[in-house]
Amino acid sequence: MAGTAWRSAIRNVLRMLGLTINGQDKTKPQEVSRVLGSFKNGSPQPRNFIREMQTVTLIPGDGIGPEISNAVMKIFEAANAPIEWEERNVTAIKGPGGKWMIPPDAKESMDRNKIGLKGPLKTPIAAGHPSMNLLLRKTFDLYANVRPCVSIEGYKTPYTDVNLVTIRENTEGEYSGIEHLIVDGVVQSIKLITEQASERIAEYAFEYARNNQRASVTAVHKANIMRMSDGLFLRKCREAAEKHKDVKFTEMYLDTVCLNMVQDPTQFDVLVMPNLYGDILSDLCAGLIGGLGVTPSGNIGANGVAIFESVHGTAPDIAGKDFANPTALLLSAVMMLRHMGLHSHGKKIETACFDTIRDKKVLTKDLGGNSKCSEFTEAICQKVRDMD
Amino acid sequence: MTFWGLGGPKWWQQASRSVSISASLSRVESPPARADATFKVTMLPGDGVGPELMTAVKDVFKAGDVPVEFDEFHLSEVQNMASEDKLEELLSSMKNNKVAIKGKIHTPMEFKGELASYEMRLRRKLDLFANVVHVNSLPGYSTRHNNLDLVIIREQTEGEYSSLEHESVPGVIECLKIITRAKSRRIAKFAFDYATKKGRNKVTAVHKANIMKLGDGLFLQCCAEVAQLYPKIKYENIIIDNCCMQLVQNPYQFDVLVMPNLYGNIIDNLAAGLVGGAGVVPGESYSAEYAVFETGARHPFAQAVGRNIANPTAMLLSAANMLRHLNLEYHSHMVSDAVKRVIKQGKVRTRDLGGYCTTGDFVHAVVENLRHRPNY
């Protein structure tokens, strides 16, 4: 991959020398506030030929992970996206002190680059270490999971015009993992809600809404039953709403949201909620648009770290056979481009992807077609090149 | 008051009023239904549109000459009509009558010093452990998924709704979710008994045991143990988030679903949305001795109060189920057929089903259809 990266770098430099340099184009990509979601400026940026290549940590993953990662890299290459990939492996190793951790070079790479793209990881059942996703979450303090669910034209589901985003608190709540066997036959599981985490996620939700021109934020809760815990979450959401008066804020019970979501999903915009409800609702919304094979997802952490991932499984039965569908990872990569401010590239790749799916000529098996992964990738690359 | 009106001897009550196990153990033939025998049923209108729906039920019953008499109680937390004495009165009435029909008692959002709402306390005191929601597509009203026929069984007394919360330090709140083997076994047995009685083929347990290993793990283990006692019924399990996804993509793969409290709340409402909303899905709650009939998706729907737009279908279908439970088969069929006929004809529909009629119009149409039944 280094060869092609060099080639594009040299191409950029040559282009720069070949054109008159406009003073404005010299602006460097801004490093500030990546934790605030993608930038407000959605308009196509001027072609920054002096823009330096940004490095992104790539974690291919297991099963179909390597195939779809290659597909994404190829498409990015075709789109001339100024991204340099650093591949890392994250199998858990036992660090000093006996604690399981990810390999130090992976951690160092992520801390340096701040942005990562991850394929599906498998958790071996009796390996003795916690799930890889959990380990990554703890290492980088990934507190927000963002899943935009947009209906894909060309992939028909009974639900059309879905356009919502679920933002889920990812560190505490019902998934705190604190369980005890009190007496034989009685188990107690603790749901933890803290002020700090609720405040952080509420702030992030409003920032996201503002940066992505979203009209409203809805807090989903069950404060009628869990009065203190969800009550605290709701209070923090209300306080954050006060500070961001330009975004409309509503609150709705979880059961009402479920009821209305399957009848009319167009009434929802941005949803923010604690861990368990978020898990369920984000999968529900993924089901509305066609399943986990086409849903992008991003995890935002403290210190500006952001890891974008595909949420489907490793599909070991089709690994290596060129049957995989790279759409989920591709759309997550597009989310990543938007987060980094490369809106024009993001739009280009996304449009190419949607057009290819809409044309229905080259589709992978899970989308209803008969083509291979490489053919699908090639079709998208072609469309991207045609757009230039 | 007649002998039957007081509820009769214990064995008669067990034979006719309890579900599954006791019913199959009874060795008496069902006594003939006497026309002048009235059954007493406790009625609790609740909040929001509850009173309007109850009026609808009473109107239809009167028009159909249904031999049921209602004992009304008004208990409401939001309207400040709740107190311990009222709750006691209500409980003693229910213990006498054994059967009740109710709306939803809304839980106010403000924390008034009591963590458990009246609705939850009612459930606990009567030990209404099983909540059954019948999700059936209505003929004549098509949604994105047609011909659905699911039963959702939810454990109603423990799980996440334990109301055990505390603030350890300011800003850190813990909420306990309790799962016990006894109650998990009980609900699993109820689910399999129900499936056997109604001739269902498959029971699917819904859980999140990959994350909550001890809690949901115990629930799953109990379900698996009970499943072995029923070899004719297929048993499967599925994780809650996958279940939600499958319900919106392919709901026909499910038959009977059994799950703990919170997941039950979510799936009840999801499934209700699949067939047409909270206005069309009936539900009931069972304990070993009592049965309470209500709507499937429980919302007080306060925005519709006084506007006469609520859909009484769910409550009427639930009332028909109640009549079947009381062994009044003829009347039960009469009411449910009338409601289904009105929906099938499609001329009179309330707002939530896409029409413009009021609750009153709908009830009137149902009453009309009642009278057209052939008399014999």
Overview of this protein structure:
Chain B: Residues 40-366 form the Isopropylmalate dehydrogenase-like domain. Chain B: This is Isocitrate dehydrogenase [NAD] subunit, mitochondrial. Chain B: One of its GO terms (molecular function) is NAD binding. Chain B: It is found in: Mitochondrion. Chain B: Belongs to the isocitrate and isopropylmalate dehydrogenases family. The complex is a heterodimer of chains A (388) and B (376). Chain A has 388 residues and is of the alpha/beta class. Helix content of chain A is 39%, strand content 20%. Chain A contains 11 helices and 14 strands. In chain A, the strands form 3 sheets. A 10-stranded mixed beta sheet of chain A has the order 2-1-5-14-13-6-7-12-10-11, sandwiched between helices. In chain A, strands 3-4 form a two-stranded antiparallel ribbon. In chain A, strands 8-9 form a two-stranded antiparallel sheet. In chain A, strand 8 and strand 9 form a beta hairpin. In chain A, helix 2 packs across helix 9, helix 7 packs parallel to helix 8 and helix 10 (343-359) crosses helix 11. In chain B, strands 2-1-3-12-11-4-5-10-8-9 form a 10-stranded mixed beta sheet, with helices on both faces. In chain B, strands 6-7 form a two-stranded antiparallel ribbon. Chain B has helices spanning 10-17, 21-25, 50-63, 84-97, 118-126, 181-197, 215-227, 240-249, 261-275, 313-325, 329-345, 359-371, and strands spanning 39-44, 68-72, 99-102, 130-136, 149-155, 165-169, 172-180, 202-207, 234-239, 256-259, 282-286, 291-295. Chain B contains 12 helices and 12 strands. The longest helix of chain B is centred in the middle third of the chain and has 17 residues, at 181-197. Strand 9 (186-194) of chain A pairs antiparallel with strand 7 of chain B.
Map the helices and strands.
The complex is a heterodimer of chains A (388) and B (376).
Chain A: H1 2-18, E1 54-59, H2 65-78, E2 83-87, E3 93-94, E4 100-101, H3 104-113, E5 115-118, H4 132-140, E6 142-150, E7 163-169, E8 179-183, E9 186-194, H5 195-211, E10 216-221, H6 229-243, E11 248-253, H7 254-263, E12 270-273, H8 275-289, E13 296-301, E14 306-310, H9 327-340, H10 343-359, H11 373-387
Parallel strand pairs in A: 1-2, 1-5, 5-14, 7-12, 10-11, 10-12
Antiparallel strand pairs in A: 3-4, 6-7, 6-13, 8-9, 13-14
Chain B: H1 10-17, H2 21-25, E1 39-44, H3 50-63, E2 68-72, H4 84-97, E3 99-102, H5 118-126, E4 130-136, E5 149-155, E6 165-169, E7 172-180, H6 181-197, E8 202-207, H7 215-227, E9 234-239, H8 240-249, E10 256-259, H9 261-275, E11 282-286, E12 291-295, H10 313-325, H11 329-345, H12 359-371
Parallel strand pairs in B: 1-2, 1-3, 3-12, 5-10, 8-9, 8-10
Antiparallel strand pairs in B: 4-5, 4-11, 6-7, 11-12
Subcellular location (chain A): Mitochondrion
InterPro entries (chain A): IsoCit/isopropylmalate_DH_CS, Isocitrate_DH_NAD, IsoPropMal-DH-like_dom
Domain Isopropylmalate dehydrogenase-like (chain A): 55-380
